[in-house]
Design a protein that fits this description.
490 residues, mainly alpha, five-stranded mixed beta sheet, two-stranded antiparallel ribbon, 57% helix, disordered C terminus
Length: 490
């Protein structure tokens, strides 16, 4: 029986949901997930269902003092069934599927079954798309999904339905306006004056209220520090960006900023630049390129999430226009495009094998770590390393930094590996070790040489501890004399 295009589209969407759910779940079971940033999503939801709001214990503040993430409230009913980050992984998988669906739908409408399958192939051979589904569930991913639907409704001229994702966009993150204001301006450019003006006004008003009134109620907004070379306040940043263009130019011409732009645009042969729809991402580009924080110009980081739908829709729009050109010119451009896509697909296949397959493989000694984690009582305070604390969030007192002696301490002997070390392994016939590190991204050594060595020694010198688990890849200590632990201790 021949499958319909609709069945294939739905099947691909479900496969997207399943893939991202499984890779996140397997990574967590295998102790790959790390403290930053799972803590900022998992722990506050646990606090919320226990009547403490979306509170961050270590920071001693509400989640909204860090970022405006009201979509986390959606997870609360699921955490009432059972407290587990698995719900986060499931909702993130669904979000990735909903991000992909409008892209696949438009590809099918414009280019038929071949376009549908090609769009799915390009999405899954795009490193940024795969990776934002593997990082923690940031608001940028929610906004990217809503942006995908917004662009779909704009391109298909369903302007009334456009208001659904526009109204919901502030529920993703306080920086939603860097997406919605350009969307409004694009509508004005397309002569949808009333819609465009309303979107811009709505965005500006809601953003002002959130950043200047709502979030300061919980904590002073700290993310302007990403642009501290321009000033400390939004007013100073904007004025200095205009009056001191040399500072802006110096940031834009840094090698990592140029590499960032190339890595985003090159996989689709820069075709997106030919579409006016591409400039919907102008403020997102400015946010990322003008920042002095390295993470914002990492194409695999959540800050790059909005570019997934922008690049997809703008590229499809250009290809549709190319098909109206003379056949000879059309073939020439599409030949370059196809070769570029295939070339980057091959590179992405290598990236998948080297950098992503590892998440389906448990870390070394994971069974011992699981046993050690299970021995820590639910009401006990605990000090742990990054990959162990992700399994110990559901308590009031925990940290990864030393402070007042904790009742339990759990460490893994993670060691850093320099380029010289890696080359040394390869040249001294320790190639199995080198390949394992390359594919798993982990290196364990003696506890005395690990990154946790000084932390362990300091804590043991300050209180008496009994070693409960002494395995090659994990140690669990229990404090001999109980003491009251401060909730704000670090």
């Amino acid at each position: 029986m021949k499958l319909s295009n609709r069945s294939i589209r739905i099947g691909l969407t479900l496969a997207t949901i399943l893939y991202f759910f499984l890779i996140r779940w397997c990574a967590h079971l295998g102790f790959h997930t790390t403290f930053a940033d799972l803590y900022f999503f998992d722990h506050p939801v646990w606090n919320f269902i226990h009547g403490r709001g979306l509170f961050l214990n270590i920071e001693n503040m509400h989640e909204f003092g860090n970022h405006f993430y009201p979509y986390l409230y959606v997870l609360a009913p699921l955490y009432l069934i059972k407290c587990s980050p698995v719900w986060l992984f499931l909702v993130q998988g669904i979000t990735m599927g909903l991000l992909a669906y409008p892209i696949l739908s438009l590809a099918e409408q414009w280019f038929g079954r071949k376009g549908l399958l090609s769009a799915a192939f390009i999405l899954f051979t795009t490193y940024s798309f795969r990776h934002i589904g593997m990082v923690d569930f940031h608001g940028d991913i929610v906004m990217a999904m809503l942006l995908s639907w917004s662009l779909y409704f704009i391109v298909t001229k369903q302007f009334r339905l456009l208001w659904i994702p526009i109204i919901l966009m502030p529920l993703g993150k306080e920086t939603f306006f860097i997406i919605t204001i350009p969307l409004g301006l694009y509508l004005i450019y397309k002569k949808q004056f009333t819609q465009g003006i309303l979107v811009v006004v709505y965005s500006a008003l809601v953003a002002y209220v959130l950043i200047h009134f709502v979030m300061p109620m919980f904590h002073s907004y700290s993310h302007f520090r990403f642009y501290d070379y321009l000033g400390a306040t939004p007013k100073e940043i904007i004025i200095n960006a205009i009056l001191k263009p040399q500072l802006v130019l110096a940031q834009l011409l840094r090698s990592e900023k140029i590499a960032y732009v190339l890595l985003l645009l090159a996989p689709l042969a820069f075709l997106s630049l030919r579409s006016s729809l591409f400039w919907v991402g102008s403020l997102v580009f400015l946010q990322n390129l003008l920042s002095n924080q390295p993470g914002l110009t990492d194409p695999s980081n959540h800050y790059a999430a909005p570019f997934i739908p922008i690049l997809a829709f703008s590229t499809m729009q250009v290809i549709q226009k190319i098909q109206l050109r003379p056949k000879e010119k059309q073939q020439k451009i599409m030949k370059i495009f196809k070769r570029t896509v295939i070339g980057f697909a091959v590179i992405n296949l290598l990236a998948f094998v080297i950098l992503e397959v590892r998440y389906f493989i448990p870390t070394q000694g994971w069974k011992d770590v699981k046993k050690a984690v299970s021995l820590v009582p639910a009401d006990a305070s605990v000090l742990g390393t990054s990959t162990t604390l992700t399994h110990l969030y559901y308590r009031q007192y925990f940290n990864r930094e030393n402070g007042s002696p904790f009742e339990y301490m759990i460490f893994r002997p993670v060691t850093s590996v320099s380029t010289e070390q890696f080359i040394g392994w390869w040249n001294t016939k320790q190639r199995a070790r080198a390949i394992r590190y390359l594919t798993t991204g982990e290196s364990f050594g003696p506890f005395e040489d690990s990154l946790s060595a000084s932390q362990m020694k300091e804590m043991i010198s300050r209180a008496s501890y009994t070693l409960l688990v002494d395995a090659p890849t994990v140690r669990l200590y229990k404090k001999n004399v109980s003491s009251k632990i401060s909730a704000t201790s670090k």
